[in-house]
Amino acid sequence: MPPNKPATPDPARTLSLLWRHDLSPQRTRGPRQSLTADQVVEAAITIASAEGLDAVTVRSVAQAVGASPMSIYTYVPGGKTELLELMIDAVYLRAERPALDRLDWRERVRSLADQNRALYAAHPWLIHAGASRPPLGPGVITKYEYELSAFDGLGLSDVEVDAALTFVLGFVQANARSAADAAALPEATAMTDEAWWQAQADLLRRVVDPKKFPRATRIGEAAGAAQGGAYEADAAYRFGMDRVLDGLEKLVERRKAR
Fold it and tell me: Which of 157, 163, 191, 223 is exposed most, by the fewest CB atoms within 10 A?
C-alpha cells in the first residue's frame, strides 16, 4: 500500500490492535517482525508531543523507528487514522489515577477534571484528537470506568452519570483548547498578550466612548487589570469548574430530595 494512500477502516482489526489480541479466524505464517505495534505507537506519541499531530505521518514514524514507510503498515494496517486511535488509548492507559474514595463528590469530580487538564497539557495533540467514536481499547475503557466512579452514591441514573461526565470533560477540553490557542499567540504575533493590549490602549481610548459603552469600558479594564489581558487560562478554568460543580450540585440535590 502506498504510504500516502488512506487505508480502508476496519473496526474489527482496530479493536484487535487496541487490545493486542488476534481476533482473526486464522493465523498465517510470515517473516518475523523486527518491531512491535507498541514501538510504533510510542514513536508516534513522541513526535506528536514534540511537534504536533500534523507531524505524525507514516513516513515520520518510520524514520523514527528506523524502518521503511511500507513496513509500518505491517503493524498499523489502517495508517494514520488507526495509529491515532492507538496513540490515544496508550496515553489513557498509562495515565495516573489517584484514589478518589476518600474525597467528597465535588473533590472527586474536580480531581478527574484536573487530571484531564494535566493530560492535555502534557499531550496538547489530544485536544484535537478526540472523536465522537472513541477507540474502545483498554485505556479508554479503564479511564471511563475510573471517571464514572467519581459520581458514585449521588442518586443519579446511569444515563445522568454518563451525561454528567461528558459535561465535565467537555468543559475541560474547551478550556484546554482555549489555553492552547492563547499560548500560541505570543509566538505567532511576536508579542505577549499583555504587550498587545498595552499597544492597543491609546487607540481604544480614542475610539471607544466610555459613556456609550460604560460596561465594556469598566468591566473590560477591570478584567484586563486582574488578568494581564483579556483571557487568563487558569482563572477561566477555576471559575468555570466552580460553575460546573455548582450546576451538578443542583441536580444532585434534586435527586437526593426525590
Answer: 157
